[in-house]
């Protein structure tokens, strides 16, 4: 009953994290008090529990569930109150902050957590600070290798360990992944003063994607900040708090180890094994670890903590049993086993702190703590009860731990190992007359068989969770783990720890460097066969994101399969797991389509599905030098949708914010054909280069007049008129770069999609001039905008240019904050649209008077669309009045980054679309927007509304 109550407490906390909004804090307090009183009353009513045992079995878990929910609501409410006020958002203000965590270096600069000292009203206490790249911390400036503005990471892009960040230190810039030297300047405990521009936490939000805001909320970070101008160190407080003191120790350890890791291949891995700092692990190594399922080996896992605790406990027992005090052996005063348990617990606690106190380390420490306390108190606790108590303890200390996938994977893995313990399988007995060699040979074989069974059980047991959370399962994991676990755990990790301890001892560093080199050499030898496994064509399998009922059935199948030997038909449990692996989401019917406008920040990417084929329009921006939207957003979305092949990849133009993810997407998924406004076989977004198109991929230019039909859906290319394919050179200066970018924007591919019931328009980054060309072309070709949709037809050349000038829309009359609510665009913008419609009606009447009858062919112009993406992210110099009237969209979508420096989408553009009758959707406010066209209905789903949680900013 106790373990069920402990798990109920965890579930209660997890249920709160699914709420779109928190109830009033008083409700949480009342519920907490009520459940405490009810529990006390039930404890006293022993006679009731004696007569009706089922009351206790039901009541205690229910009480624990309520307590977990009430505690989480109260603590979440207090954390929500420590928020950034919208009135001071994105404004640089003078502040003083204390560095609270290890600093890492990305291509953009240094990132670290900090505590604001004496924060003014509306400013939270804990923030995540980004110090832009500079020669020195107090002298900001752009380094020669810093990324240009159009390649900067969008606000709120997720912090992922696959990003090649590196630690800050006097020599740390030479670690793997370093490019430009940034001297050490950020040390935990240092106090700095300067100007910080604060933003509320905001991240990309896509179906089945990473929730960056949840990650920051779990860490207690309530704002992100960028240092503006010079910053000055004004003091040092290394012991301001226990956490800062620990981070200071970690910083010193990392600094001491850095010289021995300088310029080495696996220096980042050794650093991760020694102290849990994974920042310097290379991106290609993370890919290998993920494909082979050995990621857990390069983090401080339970195996590492347990090994250190066992070593410390054994040494303590040995010393305690041999020492005496005043003629009395210490073991006579207190049992050596008790002192060994205490020492093991202390060693585990210290190692977990040095390792960063992650969830796997917490889980292991609290399990060891429960075992140690039970041993000292001589209590008998089974493994399931120890696991449940550890999970409940972690949740009490950190109610947001159940939000992370690592919590469930960590405890789930231990549960699987307990369920599939080697003692549950039938063992072969050794004949009594067997010799010693035979016995040892039998034990070795039995141990290898048990290890293989445990690894197979672990792979099977985590399949449903991995399919739900990551949609990727390693097929070579059992073999890779069988090779890597013994060597990494028993050889590499002890050597890494020895190198860490030797590096902080006084004296020459040669021995520490030698031990570090030995650890890297052994790890390199292990990686040779592991890398060969990762390079296999079918090293991993992708699965679609199955609904949670399917996952629950799969977990039941796992539990049935892993039951003790002797239970009949255990293999039938595997049949319950197969639906999770074979699930495929429903695709549109013939003539229908599904358009997902993805949230990629300041960039563009969309996925359009028909009954049997998939088209990807643009691939999003790069997120620094080591990640991009192709691998972080587009490919995960395709994977979750069960899409294994892209039939048509259309890149509107070569700017980084639209083509930045091209190379990653081509490496991740087969692409049948590529169409672009430039020669993708020779170049991609500057300054990156494409190593070469896959041999099975066709490529060609996009040109106006191209048309094709797939599954009853017709695709028309409206622009450009011709493609030169002339290769580009890197721009010599900023002015040249701007002109080149404008030329690429003007050459964007414009695609119109016409289904059986609805249509869509994807214009890339064209401006008003290109919109005029498309409108004029439609009129010259005899296409007339249907009167039922736009009250006539017109050429942009016949529209009164004075009224259509974008600058006429008074920015001051537009309420930017309410731009998508439908109330903020009255006045001048509406007058402009009315004037444009008048011109359209006048031109249509003139055409009819000249004998141009609007026959069926004329009414078949492909320009009008039910769904339209705003050209150039909704910039002021696009989406002009005649265009918005002619397109007559019911829905207009702006893909833009949160509080981006370009002010996209511009209020004038939003006003013109809304005045033309379109409902406004913005990825920076609504996340991914998904349109589904089917008979009689065009449904719209906005991800921030579907996945709304209480920590998401309004």
TrEMBL record:
Q: Which Pfam families match?
A: Competence, DUF4131, Lactamase_B
The residues covered by the ComEC/Rec2-related protein domain are 273-561
Alphabetically sorted, this entry's keywords are: Cell membrane, Membrane, Transmembrane, Transmembrane helix
InterPro entries with a match to the protein in the record = ComA-like_MBL, ComEC_N, Competence_ComEC/Rec2, Competence_DNA_uptake, DUF4131, Metallo-B-lactamas, RibonucZ/Hydroxyglut_hydro
**Which biological process, per GO, is one annotated for this protein?**
establishment of competence for transformation
The protein's location, in the record's own words, is:
Cell membrane
Is Cytoplasm a UniProt keyword of this protein? no
Q: Where is the composition biased (Low complexity)?
A: 731-741
User: How does this protein sit in the membrane?
Assistant: Multi-pass membrane protein
Q: Please tell me whether the keyword Cell membrane is annotated for this protein.
A: yes
Provide the Metallo-beta-lactamase domain boundaries. Answer: 600-678
Please list the residue ranges annotated as the DUF4131 domain.
173-230
Q: Name one GO cellular component term.
A: plasma membrane
Where are its TM segments located?
A: 21-42, 54-74, 297-318, 338-357, 364-381, 401-420, 451-470, 482-504, 511-530
Region annotated Disordered sits at 133-176, 722-741, 790-823
Q: Which PANTHER family match?
A: DNA INTERNALIZATION/COMPETENCE PROTEIN COMEC/REC2, RECOMBINATION PROTEIN 2
The name under which this protein is listed is: Competence protein ComEC
């Amino acid at each position: 009953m106790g373990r069920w109550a402990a798990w109920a407490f965890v579930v209660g906390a997890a249920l709160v994290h699914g709420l779109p909004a928190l109830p009033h804090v008083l409700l949480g307090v009342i519920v907490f008090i009520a459940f405490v009183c009810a529990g006390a009353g039930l404890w006293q009513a022993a006679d009731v529990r004696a007569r009706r045992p089922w009351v206790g079995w039901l009541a205690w878990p229910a009480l624990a569930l309520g307590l977990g929910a009430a505690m989480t609501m109260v603590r979440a409410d207090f954390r929500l109150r420590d928020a950034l006020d919208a009135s001071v958002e994105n404004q640089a203000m003078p502040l003083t902050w204390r560095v609270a965590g290890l600093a890492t270096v990305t291509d953009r600069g240094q990132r670290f957590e900090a505590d604001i000292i004496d924060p003014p009203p509306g400013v939270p206490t804990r923030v995540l600070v980004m110090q832009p790249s500079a020669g020195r911390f107090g002298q900001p400036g752009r380094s020669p290798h810093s990324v240009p503005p159009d390649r900067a990471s969008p606000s709120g892009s997720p912090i992922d360990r696959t990003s090649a960040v590196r630690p800050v230190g006097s020599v740390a810039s030479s670690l793997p992944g370093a490019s430009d030297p940034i001297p050490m300047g950020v040390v935990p405990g240092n106090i700095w003063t300067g100007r910080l521009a604060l933003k509320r936490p905001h991240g990309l939000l896509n179906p089945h994607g990473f929730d960056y805001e949840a990650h920051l909320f779990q860490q207690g970070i309530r704002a992100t900040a960028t240092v503006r101008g010079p910053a000055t160190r004004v003091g040092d407080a290394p012991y301001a708090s226990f956490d800062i003191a620990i981070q200071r120790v970690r910083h010193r350890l990392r600094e001491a180890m850095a010289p021995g890791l300088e310029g080495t291949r696996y220096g980042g891995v050794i650093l991760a094994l020694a102290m849990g700092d994974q920042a310097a692990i290379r991106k290609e190594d993370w890919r290998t670890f993920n494909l082979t399922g050995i990621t857990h080996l390069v983090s401080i896992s339970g195996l590492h903590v347990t090994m250190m605790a066992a070593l410390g406990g054994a040494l303590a027992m040995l010393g305690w049993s041999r020492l005496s005090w005043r003629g009395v052996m210490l073991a006579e005063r207190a049992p050596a086993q008790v002192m060994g348990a205490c020492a093991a617990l202390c060693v585990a606690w210290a190692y977990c702190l040095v390792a960063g106190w992650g969830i796997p380390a917490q889980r292991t420490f609290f399990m060891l703590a429960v075992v140690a306390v039970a041993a000292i108190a001589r209590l008998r606790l089974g493994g399931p009860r120890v696991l449940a108590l550890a999970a409940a303890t972690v949740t009490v200390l950190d109610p947001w731990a159940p939000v992370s996938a690592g919590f469930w994977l960590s405890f789930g893995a231990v549960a699987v190992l307990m369920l599939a313990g080697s003692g549950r399988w039938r063992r072969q007995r050794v004949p009594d007359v067997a010799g010693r060699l035979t016995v040892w040979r039998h034990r070795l074989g039995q141990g290898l068989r048990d290890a293989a069974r445990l690894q197979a059980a672990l792979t099977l047991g985590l399949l449903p969770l991995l399919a739900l959370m990551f949609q990727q399962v390693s097929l070579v994991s059992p073999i890779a783990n069988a090779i890597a676990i013994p060597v990494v755990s028993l050889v590499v990790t002890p050597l890494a720890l020895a190198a860490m301890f030797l590096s902080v001892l006084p004296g020459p560093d040669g021995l520490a460097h030698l031990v570090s080199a030995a650890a890297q050499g052994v790890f390199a030898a292990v990686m040779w066969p592991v890398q060969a496994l990762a390079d296999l064509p079918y090293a991993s399998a992708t699965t679609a994101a199955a609904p949670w009922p399917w996952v629950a059935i799969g977990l039941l199948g796992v539990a049935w399969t892993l039951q003790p030997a002797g239970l009949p038909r255990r293999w039938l449990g595997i049949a319950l797991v197969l639906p999770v692996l074979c699930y495929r989401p429903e695709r549109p019917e013939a003539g229908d389509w599904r358009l997902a406008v993805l949230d990629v920040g300041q960039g563009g990417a969309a996925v359009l599905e028909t009954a049997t084929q998939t088209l990807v329009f643009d691939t999003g921006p790069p997120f620094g030098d080591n990640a991009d939207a192709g691998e972080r957003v587009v490919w995960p979305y395709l994977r979750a949708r069960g899409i294994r092949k892209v039939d048509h990849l259309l890149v509107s133009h070569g700017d980084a914010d639209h083509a930045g993810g091209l190379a990653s997407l081509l490496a991740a998924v087969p692409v049948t054909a590529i169409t672009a406004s430039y020669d993708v076989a020779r170049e991609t977004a500057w300054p990156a280069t494409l190593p070469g198109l896959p041999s099975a991929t066709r490529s060609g230019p996009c040109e106006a007049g191209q048309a094709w039909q797939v599954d009853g859906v017709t695709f028309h290319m409206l622009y450009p008129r011709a493609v030169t394919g002339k290769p580009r050179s890197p721009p010599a200066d900023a002015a040249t770069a701007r002109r080149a970018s404008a030329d690429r924007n003007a050459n964007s591919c414009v695609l119109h999609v016409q289904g059986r019931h609805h249509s869509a328009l994807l214009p890339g980054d064209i401006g008003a001039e290109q919109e005029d060309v498309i409108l004029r072309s439609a009129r010259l070709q005899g296409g007339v905008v249907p009167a039922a949709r736009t009250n006539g037809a017109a050429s942009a050349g016949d529209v009164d240019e004075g009224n259509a000038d974008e600058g006429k829309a008074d920015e001051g009359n537009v309420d930017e904050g309410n731009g998508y609510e439908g109330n903020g665009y009255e006045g001048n913008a509406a007058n402009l649209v009315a004037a444009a419609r008048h011109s359209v009606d006048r031109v249509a009447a003139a055409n009819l008077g000249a004998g141009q009858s609007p026959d069926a062919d004329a009414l078949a112009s492909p320009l009008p669309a039910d769904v339209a993406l705003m050209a150039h992210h909704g910039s002021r110099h696009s989406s002009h009045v005649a265009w918005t009237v002619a397109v007559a969209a019911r829905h207009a979508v702006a893909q833009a980054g949160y509080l981006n420096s370009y002010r996209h989408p511009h209020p004038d553009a939003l006003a013109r679309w809304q005045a033309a009758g379109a409902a406004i959707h913005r990825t920076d406010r609504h996340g991914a927007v998904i349109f589904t066209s089917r008979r009689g209905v065009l449904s719209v789903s906005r991800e921030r509304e579907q996945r709304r949680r209480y920590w998401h900013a309004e």
